[in-house]
């Protein structure tokens, strides 16, 4: 009875030729996954997908390189140039859903890949581990935003047991009657997992997200940095049933809150902006505080920046005194004390510059920092009815700007801690500042 199931999964229900042709139309067939296709005008976006080998090994395919963590969760695939995947091949490998399409055999690496969702229907854990490996200096910081988008769940399956438990029981029951070695047992486990996952994959995705979020345990101030969007269907939806697409769209239209979508959009826009400053632009004051000047820039380029400029223009009122304009709110976090607050309006000419010259760099005249332990917050206000508690911070905030100042000095002088008085003197060194400035830009850009 098992043999027909294995045969169907190995060969697939549908032809793979049309699927691969479609991938090549979307992803140019000469584009490699890693290196060689970089757009010099745009930002280097890190992208990765998961896939699975016949030996039940989870593999991360990516367009970037990074150091291996001390305890790797998955296998990070970074072969030599002669074995590198093409972009369309990575798409084929991660979507090689057995029982629908046959496994993807990558000739150069002599490896066979199956659907990436076998073990990670919701790849949030993989994404978390990868982000820490890519940006190790940011591992202890809160993310600007983590947005997880589900593919829908069937509420009738919410009492189902965990996939791993069910699969182990199935493999044990079948394996007790069959003489199978470890490799075949692993592949059998993959097949069983696939059959079971196709019934409750939505539920497992929700469970994976909730368990991961419980481990992260963000405090109330940071809970809204972690977002999950999903819908519940009234009944099961088959992956290959084209007629059910309307049912999926209707569920999204009925259940997704427009207010929630608007908040997420505002949060994503806010995270596109970041603050940076030159070494000589932060000074220690006699009262133990600091003052700092710098610039707010945008990490978007080209057409994306033009579209953001058009959006900011749309949100602005007529260019007359008293009319609302999007603005940055700069304040110090001072629990149980009155907060100092500065408002920097985005003048009407800035959105025009974003659309025409495709650039944005807004001077911040002065930020006052009351003490060495004080945190600064820069928020973006996009609508006149928003209160401060509803605003979202720009990238990397809140943080202690004076710590950035010390980090730069430590990066320049190795692990040796620079005495405070010497650090203040070094502030005034224009030559040194030119050597050290790049660190803060790279740090903020990578958040």
From TrEMBL:
GO molecular function, a single term: calcium-independent phospholipase A2 activity
Keywords, sorted A to Z: Hydrolase, Lipid degradation, Lipid metabolism
Sequence motif: DGA/G, positions: 115-117
Keyword Nuclease in annotation: no
GO CC, one annotated term: membrane
PNPLA domain sequence ranges: 1-128
Keyword Aminoacyl-tRNA synthetase carried by entry: no
InterPro entries from the UniProt entry: Acyl_Trfase/lysoPLipase (IPR016035), PNPLA_dom (IPR002641)
Top-level taxon of origin: Eukaryota
Protein name as annotated: FabD/lysophospholipase-like protein
Protein's organism: Byssothecium circinans
């Amino acid at each position: 009875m098992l043999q027909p199931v294995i045969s169907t999964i190995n060969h697939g229900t549908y032809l793979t030729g049309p699927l691969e042709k479609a991938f090549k139309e979307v992803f140019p067939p000469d584009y490699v996954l890693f290196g060689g296709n970089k757009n010099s005008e745009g930002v280097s976006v890190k992208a990765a997908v998961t896939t699975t080998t016949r030996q039940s090994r989870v593999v991360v395919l990516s367009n970037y390189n990074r150091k291996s963590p001390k305890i790797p969760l998955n296998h990070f695939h970074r072969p030599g140039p002669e074995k590198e995947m093409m972009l369309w091949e990575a798409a084929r490998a991660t979507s090689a859903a057995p029982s629908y399409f046959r496994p993807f055999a990558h000739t150069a690496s002599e490896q066979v890949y199956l659907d990436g969702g076998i073990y990670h229907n919701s790849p949030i854990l993989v994404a978390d581990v990868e982000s820490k490996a890519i940006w190790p200096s940011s591992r202890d910081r809160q993310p600007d935003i983590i947005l997880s988008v589900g593919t829908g769940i069937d509420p009738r399956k919410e009492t189902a047991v965990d996939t791993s438990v069910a699969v182990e029981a199935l493999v044990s029951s079948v394996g007790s009657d069959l003489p199978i070695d470890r490799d075949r047992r692993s592949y059998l486990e993959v097949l069983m997992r696939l059959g079971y996952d196709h019934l409750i994959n939505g539920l497992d995705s929700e469970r994976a997200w909730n368990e991961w979020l419980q481990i992260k345990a963000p405090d109330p101030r940071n809970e809204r940095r972690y977002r999950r969007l999903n819908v519940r269907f009234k009944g099961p939806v088959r992956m290959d049933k084209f007629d059910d697409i309307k049912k999926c769209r209707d569920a999204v239209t009925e259940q997704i809150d427009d207010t929630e979508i608007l908040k997420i959009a505002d949060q994503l826009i806010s995270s596109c902006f970041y603050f940076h400053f030159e070494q000589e632009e932060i000074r220690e004051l006699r009262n133990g505080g600091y003052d700092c000047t710098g610039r707010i820039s945008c990490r978007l380029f080209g057409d994306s920046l033009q579209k953001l400029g058009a959006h900011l223009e749309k949100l602005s009122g007529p260019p007359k005194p008293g009319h609302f304009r999007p603005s940055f709110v700069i304040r110090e976090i001072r629990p149980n004390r009155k907060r100092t607050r500065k408002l920097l309006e985005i003048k009407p000419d800035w959105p025009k510059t974003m659309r025409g010259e495709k650039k944005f760099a807004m001077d911040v005249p002065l930020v006052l920092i009351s003490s060495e332990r004080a945190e600064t917050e820069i928020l973006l206000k996009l609508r006149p009815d928003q209160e401060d508690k509803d605003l979202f911070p720009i990238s990397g905030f809140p943080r202690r700007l004076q710590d950035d100042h010390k980090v730069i000095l430590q990066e320049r002088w190795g692990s040796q801690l620079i005495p405070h008085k010497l650090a203040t003197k070094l502030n005034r060194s224009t030559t040194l500042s030119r050597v050290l400035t790049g660190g803060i830009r790279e740090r903020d850009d990578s958040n």
